[in-house]
Every structure is written in structure tokens, then in C-alpha cells.
Specification:
Rossmann fold; alpha+beta; D-amino Acid Aminotransferase, Chain A, domain 1; globular; 4 domains; single chain
């Protein structure tokens, strides 16, 4: 291939562009109206507009991307992850146009991209799944019948999704219809399809996955395991390789099971087979027919450029190594740096302009960035700013190195998940491997993490300034609050709402939203009696749904928004008296 179009944006588009440049391959970016000046556009050799702002209007538009392929003359397409990466129709359309799709065959995507048929395919080759129901879920009665047989909690999941998008966990007594509606809505927004299925939700599992590579000649290898158990909202915060604290025999069995699943569906290129591990047993969960966000930890441990391997396989080259050649070296940990405010464990989306970005450096330290200082993090897309990856000779060395790197890192203008990552890595449960996929939400205490940027209660319009002062020749960093002064003709900066606004905190009855977003559902009407903490509306921001709750009991006297309205941080959306 001489020219590759990257049908994606952000960090993964940058990652692929860099790999292509090292292989002396020209690169083509595509972009929405909001991404006209994005980092991936600046780095590519050429770029084509898709139009629109939201994902549905741009990166999910097959026709616009196909037109960009034709205009650019690209002879290869890398889909990245998310968007159209697991869309078999898109892969087929690319191939039919005479362009190489850098990923699995459309037939494999069709089988494994649909999580329902993927379960059936795995079971056919003897790899057991988490107990589930493969009939498409549309009604509460289906969930009730499943729970009667398997018990609560029950997970309703997007059939054509992954990464925790379009997934809701239903406990006994929950509003099942609301969960189904929300899961379908998220799935449609992020993946373009809204089919759902059911699985038993394990009580305290670890999430372990296996990286596989397969060529067109029947060769398939696995590159060890990754542990992705530190999650919130079923989306990963920290990943590591190899999966620690599990017997080598079990890890090898997982690897062989992953290879069996891949060969069973005629797989080709890079893919990831996911398992849940609990009490010495592992269960097949799903296969992601694409590159994973967490692929760098595998690259660091096995010294393999997975993107370069993807391109090589897509060009018809056989694998250059066998399973016996795969030897792990040390341990690697990846921290996802998301534009979210983790204060009080809320993880509220935090779109905005990155006014300053200082990245860590040093031995065994890597940062895969999707943004630079001055770039805008839009509420219309995934909120991944970048990924910090640290390698060490052993897990403890990697853990300490990652903490050191996080201390060096500075992001200003938006809140990020960095404080939560530090809390996780410093916790004894993480160090001692007693955490699970539910640990962050059920055990980790994030109450001492302040909302970022800090907002004192009675200094509206003021902003924090950090000044260096010296006392007895010793330097101190002191934060003071100074009035915002805007240039002539410009408005002053709007103060950022606190996390408690979305969680029902202050008790004033003036309900504000803590982030920019779109109202996708209004749950109450004027005159309704509500309880403190009751959801009033659902706000979508950065592809996540967030409930905006009542901060006190009372009567709804005013609703200022309707479904489909856009709102900004701090906007008052309802009044309770």
C-alpha cells in the first residue's frame, strides 16, 4: 500500500498516521466540521471534509468516507476503533471498491461484530460463554424471565458494540424499560445499530482479554493477556499486560481459547478475545474485531508494532513469527486520560479547550496523544484525550513509574481522570490484586478529589491562579482567587458547575447541568412531585448518558428545556419548590 486513509479521529488516527509515516506510506485524514484543525488532520499528508458535527453526521457516514477514498486515491483504509471499525457492510463496501480494508474479512466481522452470533460461534468450537440469551431484547418481560432463571443483576448489552457503550446493568427493582431504552439509544448513537442481548452479570470478576493476530494462510498467534478490571460505567480506566496474579496454566488456556475462537470464524488481522475471570474459571465474553484502545501495553511487553503488523497482514504477508517466538518482557500499565471530572466518583464529561498540556517523559514512558495545547475537546465525540503507558521490569516497577509519570503530567482547561488514576494505582487493593470490574464504583473512595477546576462557593466569576512565592528562601505554590477580566468586547468565563449539580447536591431547587450536552429525554412534567435524587432528565455528553437529578424533594414548577435542546455548563434546566 502506498496511501492509507484513516477512517477515524483523535488518538487512534494519530497512532495510525505515525505508524504509516514510519513505513513510508502516505496518509489521508477525514474530519468533521469541528475537527477541521484537529491534531490528526495536522499530521496527515492530506485531509478531506466529511461535513457535519456529530458522529452520525460525519464519521459514521459511509457515503462520505467512501467518497473521500475515491477522491484521495487511497489504496488502503484503516478504521481505527469505534465508529465503523466493526461494521461489516463498511468493510465490504471498501473491498468492493478495490481498496484494502485493514482489518478482518466482512464475514468475520458479521459473525463476531454481532455479539449474539459471536457467542454462538464460540460455543460451537467449545469455548464457553457467560450465561446469556441470544434473542434480541426489546421488552421488560424478557429480562424478567432471564432473571428468574439466572438471578439479578442482569446486563443488557449492545449486540454491535463494545467498550461498555450501550450496556446497562439491571438490578432487582430497577426500571427495566428505561434501561432497555437507554442502552438501545447509546448503541444507536455510538455504533449505528440498536440491537441488544442479555447476559448474567457476574458479582466480582476480573476482565481479562487476549490479543490475537491471524494471517490469510491459517496462521494465528496470541500475544498474551491484558487485565482491564479497573472500570467505571463498564468502560476501562487502567489496563495492564500481562494479566497479573493468575496461574500461568489458566493464562495459556485463555490464549489457546482465543486462537480457537479466531480460527473458528476464519479471522484475519488483529483482534481481541475478551473473557471474564472469577474463582479460577474464565468465560468467553466477546471478540472485538479491531484494534483495541489498550493495545500499547501489549506492544510494550512483546516489542511488536501491532499497527504495522495489521498493515503487513492486510497486504497479504504471512505472520513473521510463530507462537513459540512470542516471549513477554516485563510489565506495562496504561492509563486512559479522559476529559471527565472524577470528583465524588461522578466522572462527569468535561469538554472544553485544553489551555495547557505538559506530557511526562523518561525511561519506559510513552504517551499516545490525540490533542495538543490549544485543541478543543468536543462534547460530540468520545472523551479520550490520550493514553499514558509505562513499562517496568515487573508490575511494581511499572506501577511506581506510572505514578511518577502522572505526577509530571499537567492538563489545564478541562478536568481529566488523572486524579482517579492516581487513586487507583496508589490503593492497596490494586497493588495486591484484590480489585474487580466493580471495585472502582463500589469500593474506591474518590470523595477527596476536588472538582477541577476548583470553584469556591461564593466567588462566581473568579478564577484560580497559582503563584510561586518564597518564604525564608523556600518556594511555595499558592493558589489565589482573582476576578476574571476579559478583553474588551468579550464575555467573562462561565464558572464550571460542580459535580453535585448532577447528583442532587445543593438543595436549592434550581437544577443546573454540570456540562455541555444535549437533552435526550425529559422524565418529569410541571406539577410532578419528586424526591431528592430522582432523575429529572437525561443529558448526553461525549457519548455518555448522564441523569440530572432533583437536589431536593418538592414540586416541579418549571422545566426550561425540551428533548433535543443543547445546554451549556451551569444552565438552569428546571425549578423545584
Amino acid at each position: 500500500m502506498k496511501k492509507i486513509l484513516i477512517a477515524n479521529r483523535g488518538e487512534i488516527a494519530v497512532r495510525v498516521i505515525r505508524a504509516c509515516k514510519e513505513l513510508d506510506i502516505s496518509t489521508v485524514a477525514v474530519y468533521s466540521e469541528l475537527d477541521r484543525s484537529a491534531l490528526h488532520v495536522r499530521l496527515a499528508d492530506e485531509a478531506y471534509a466529511l461535513g457535519g458535527q456529530t458522529a452520525a453526521e460525519s464519521y459514521l457516514r459511509t457515503d462520505a468516507i467512501m467518497n473521500a477514498i475515491l477522491q484521495s486515491g487511497a489504496d488502503g483504509v484503516h478504521p481505527g476503533y469505534g465508529f465503523l471499525s466493526e461494521n461489516g457492510d463498511f468493510a465490504k463496501a471498501v473491498a468492493e471498491q478495490g481498496t484494502i480494508f485493514i482489518g478482518p474479512p466482512p464475514e468475520a466481522i458479521a459473525v463476531m461484530g454481532d455479539k449474539i452470533s459471536a457467542r454462538e460461534a464460540a460455543e460451537k468450537v467449545g469455548v464457553l460463554s457467560v450465561p446469556g440469551a441470544t434473542d434480541p431484547v426489546t421488552e421488560a418481560s424478557q429480562v424478567e424471565a432471564f432473571a428468574k432463571e439466572h438471578g439479578y443483576p442482569v446486563a443488557v448489552k449492545a449486540a454491535y458494540g463494545g467498550g461498555g457503550r450501550g450496556m446497562k446493568v439491571i438490578n432487582e427493582g430497577d426500571n427495566i424499560d428505561a434501561a432497555i431504552t437507554s442502552a438501545a439509544r447509546e448503541a444507536l448513537s455510538y455504533f449505528g445499530r440498536d440491537e441488544l442481548y442479555l447476559e448474567r452479570y457476574l458479582k466480582a470478576p476480573r476482565h481479562v482479554e487476549v490479543q490475537v493476530l491471524a494471517d490469510a494462510y491459517g496462521n494465528c498467534v496470541h500475544l498474551g493477556t491484558r487485565d482491564c478490571s479497573a472500570q467505571r460505567r463498564h468502560q476501562k480506566l487502567i489496563e495492564e499486560a500481562p494479566a497479573p496474579g493468575i496461574d500461568l496454566e489458566i493464562l495459556e488456556a485463555m490464549g489457546q481459547a482465543a486462537v480457537t475462537v479466531a480460527l473458528g470464524c476464519g479471522y484475519r488481522n488483529a483482534g481481541t478475545v475478551e473473557f471474564l475471570y472469577e474463582d479460577g474459571h474464565f468465560y468467553y465474553l466477546e471478540m472485538n474485531t479491531r484494534l483495541q484502545v489498550e493495545h500499547p501495553v501489549t506492544e510494550m511487553v512483546f516489542d511488536v508494532d501491532l499497527v504495522a503488523e495489521q498493515i503487513s497482514i492486510a497486504q497479504g504477508e504471512p505472520l513473521s513469527f510463530t507462537q513459540s517466538d512470542v516471549k513477554p518482557r516485563g510489565h506495562a500499565i496504561e492509563v486512559r486520560v479522559n476529559a471527565e471530572d472524577p470528583a465524588d466518583g461522578a466522572f462527569l464529561p468535561s469538554p472544553g479547550t485544553i489551555t495547557s498540556l505538559r506530557l511526562p517523559d523518561g525511561y519506559g514512558t510513552r504517551f499516545d496523544a490525540g490533542y495538543e495545547s490549544g485543541d478543543e475537546v468536543s462534547p460530540h465525540y468520545d472523551n479520550l484525550v490520550g493514553k499514558l503507558v509505562c513499562w517496568g521490569a515487573d508490575r511494581e516497577t511499572a506501577r511506581r513509574r506510572t505514578l511518577r509519570a502522572l505526577e509530571e503530567m499537567s492538563v489545564e482547561g478541562i478536568a481529566t481522570t488523572v486524579p482517579a488514576a492516581r487513586a487507583i494505582l496508589q490503593h492497596d487493593d490494586f497493588a495486591n490484586l484484590t480489585h474487580s470490574t466493580k471495585w472502582v464504583e463500589e469500593t474506591l473512595d474518590l470523595s477527596d478529589i476536588a472538582t477541577t477546576p476548583l470553584t469556591p462557593p461564593d466567588t462566581a466569576g473568579d478564577s484560580p491562579r497559582t503563584l510561586d512565592v518564597e518564604v525564608d528562601s523556600k518556594k511555595f505554590a499558592v493558589t489565589v482567587w482573582l476576578p476574571d477580566v476579559a478583553p474588551a468586547g468579550q464575555a467573562t468565563r462561565t464558572r464550571r458547575a460542580s459535580a453535585s449539580a448532577a447528583l442532587g447536591g445543593g438543595g436549592s431547587g434550581s437544577i443546573s447541568v454540570p456540562m455541555q450536552g444535549t437533552v435526550i429525554s425529559v422524565l418529569v412534567s410541571v406539577g410532578d412531585e419528586v424526591e431528592a435524587g430522582q432523575p429529572l432528565l437525561v443529558l448526553e455528553a461525549m457519548k455518555m448518558e448522564n441523569n440530572i437529578n432533583a437536589d431536593k424533594a418538592g414540586t416541579v414548577t418549571e422545566i426550561r428545556v425540551s428533548e433535543g435542546d443543547s445546554v451549556g455548563s451551569g444552565d438552569i434546566v428546571a425549578i423545584i419548590e
